[in-house]
């Protein structure tokens, strides 16, 4: 466990993953019955695959393939990554459960896998991060480039992302090289976790567990955002934030308590008179 309380890979019950995959396949079969025109897409993306990890690998290769890198090569990379690192699928399971629990627009578990670019980009980042840790830096940079081009999500492969993360809508997400994002974090579109100036080294934010980051928020520099805090939409955060606080403004300041134990689950972005939910 690291300084943010992350458990590497977020170990999960294999039987729970099998049950999750069975439910997704059931949803997919029902979707084919109700919308036959999507039958080929749903079969190729979900029903054709025996495991959750295999479906993730297929989606990764399909979305990131280009004239520079074939779908077959990318599929081999993804399958190798999942075979050698089961924590990738465990993290993807936690992320999927997070989206289903927190996003009111998500009514079925199959939706993020097929239609939500924030979820798909995060799983692609996870393979890029695995490549980075294997010393395959150029291939990791390729994955980062394609994620930025395809999804509009630019996460440096060296950044560290916890599990149970939801990136909602996911337009214009930027997360820098030395950023660390804890477990059970939610962020909306146009969030930047960036550096300041041209200094090298550890220069990006450290986001605690259970934090909610509102749309358009910018968190800049090697600063810490405490566990279970809220960052209001459009805020620019330039200083450390204690745990369990709500901040808002440009530059951001503390406007009250977070109002709940885990703001990332509640997704409440309304500020009361005292800044609480």
Automatic annotation (TrEMBL):
<dbReference type="Pfam" id="PF00132">
    <property type="entry name" value="Hexapep"/>
</dbReference>
<dbReference type="InterPro" id="IPR018357">
    <property type="entry name" value="Hexapep_transf_CS"/>
</dbReference>
<keyword id="KW-0028">Amino-acid biosynthesis</keyword>
<comment type="pathway">
    <text>Amino-acid biosynthesis; L-cysteine biosynthesis; L-cysteine from L-serine: step 1/2.</text>
</comment>
<dbReference type="GO" id="GO:0005737">
    <property type="term" value="C:cytoplasm"/>
</dbReference>
<dbReference type="GO" id="GO:0006535">
    <property type="term" value="P:cysteine biosynthetic process from serine"/>
</dbReference>
<dbReference type="InterPro" id="IPR042122">
    <property type="entry name" value="Ser_AcTrfase_N_sf"/>
</dbReference>
<feature type="domain" description="Serine acetyltransferase N-terminal">
    <location>
        <begin position="20"/>
        <end position="124"/>
    </location>
</feature>
<dbReference type="InterPro" id="IPR053376">
    <property type="entry name" value="Serine_acetyltransferase"/>
</dbReference>
<protein>
    <recommendedName>
        <fullName>Serine acetyltransferase</fullName>
        <ecNumber>2.3.1.30</ecNumber>
    </recommendedName>
</protein>
<dbReference type="InterPro" id="IPR005881">
    <property type="entry name" value="Ser_O-AcTrfase"/>
</dbReference>
<comment type="similarity">
    <text>Belongs to the transferase hexapeptide repeat family.</text>
</comment>
<dbReference type="InterPro" id="IPR010493">
    <property type="entry name" value="Ser_AcTrfase_N"/>
</dbReference>
<dbReference type="InterPro" id="IPR045304">
    <property type="entry name" value="LbH_SAT"/>
</dbReference>
<keyword id="KW-0808">Transferase</keyword>
<keyword id="KW-0677">Repeat</keyword>
<dbReference type="GO" id="GO:0009001">
    <property type="term" value="F:serine O-acetyltransferase activity"/>
</dbReference>
<keyword id="KW-0012">Acyltransferase</keyword>
<dbReference type="InterPro" id="IPR011004">
    <property type="entry name" value="Trimer_LpxA-like_sf"/>
</dbReference>
<dbReference type="Pfam" id="PF06426">
    <property type="entry name" value="SATase_N"/>
</dbReference>
<dbReference type="InterPro" id="IPR001451">
    <property type="entry name" value="Hexapep"/>
</dbReference>
């Amino acid at each position: 466990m690291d300084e943010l309380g992350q458990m590497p890979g977020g170990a999960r019950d294999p039987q729970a993953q099998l049950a999750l995959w069975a439910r997704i396949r059931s949803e997919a079969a029902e979707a084919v019955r109700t919308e036959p025109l999507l039958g080929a897409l749903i079969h190729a993306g979900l029903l054709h695959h025996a495991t959750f990890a295999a479906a993730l690998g297929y989606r990764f290769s399909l979305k990131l393939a280009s004239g520079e890198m074939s779908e077959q090569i990318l599929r081999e990379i993804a399958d190798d990554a999942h075979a050698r690192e089961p924590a990738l699928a465990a993290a993807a399971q936690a992320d999927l459960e997070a989206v289903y629990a927190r996003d009111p627009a998500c009514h079925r578990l199959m939706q993020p896998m097929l239609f939500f670019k924030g979820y798909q980009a995060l799983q692609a980042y996870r393979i890029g991060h695995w490549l980075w840790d294997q010393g395959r830096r150029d291939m990791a940079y390729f994955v980062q480039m394609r994620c930025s081009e395809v999804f509009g999500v630019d996460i440096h492969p060296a950044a560290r992302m916890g599990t149970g993360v939801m990136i909602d809508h996911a337009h214009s997400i930027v997360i820098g090289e030395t950023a660390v994002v804890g477990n059970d974090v939610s962020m909306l579109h146009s969030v930047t976790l960036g550096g300041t100036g041209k200094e090298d080294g550890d220069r990006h934010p450290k986001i605690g567990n259970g934090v909610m980051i509102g749309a358009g928020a910018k968190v800049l520099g090697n600063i810490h955002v405490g566990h279970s805090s809220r960052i209001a939409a459009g805020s620019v955060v330039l200083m450390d934030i204690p745990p369990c606080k709500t901040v808002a403004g440009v530059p951001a300041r503390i406007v009250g308590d977070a109002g709940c134990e885990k703001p990332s689950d509640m997704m409440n972005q309304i500020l009361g008179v005292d800044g609480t939910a």
